[in-house]
């Protein structure tokens, strides 16, 4: 077994995680960047006259940024969970518990359902132009 090489690899991986976390959560980090881009397009929609094709492109970009931002926020949550439990890594028995917590959080994130209900189903369908069954 190459002990020194394995320790170097472990340290390198931990450093990559720390750098990625800084990239995610810094003042001008990836999460902040996505939020700023979404805000930009929301204000652009509000204050400009647009044709439907432009609105579609903006909506598509907002969706892309929201998906990207969600992925970044999920990663940041997992890294925070790791950081909160980092001291436990010293004890062999606690490592398995940390992995269980990480996997549980990751599964919860993947299975999360959007349930924000600012509109009723009828209001949403009206805005989207979806007709009720039997209506023309």
Task: Explain what this protein looks like in three dimensions.
By secondary structure, the protein is an all-alpha fold. It has helices at residues 3-25, 30-47, 52-84, 92-110, 121-128. The longest helix has 33 residues, at 52-84. The protein is elongated. The protein starts with a helix and ends in an 8-residue tail after the last helix.
Q: What is this entry, summarized?
A:
This protein has 136 residues and is an all-alpha fold. It is built from 5 helices and no strands. Helix 2 packs antiparallel against helix 3.
What structural keywords apply?
mainly alpha, 136 residues
- Strand percentage: under 5%
- Low-pLDDT residue spans: none
| Mean pLDDT, all residues | 88
Give helix and strand order, one letter per element, not per position: HHHHH
| Main beta sheet strand tally, sense and closure | none
Topology:
Layout: H1 3-25, H2 30-47, H3 52-84, H4 92-110, H5 121-128
Helix pairs in contact: 1-3, 2-3, 3-4
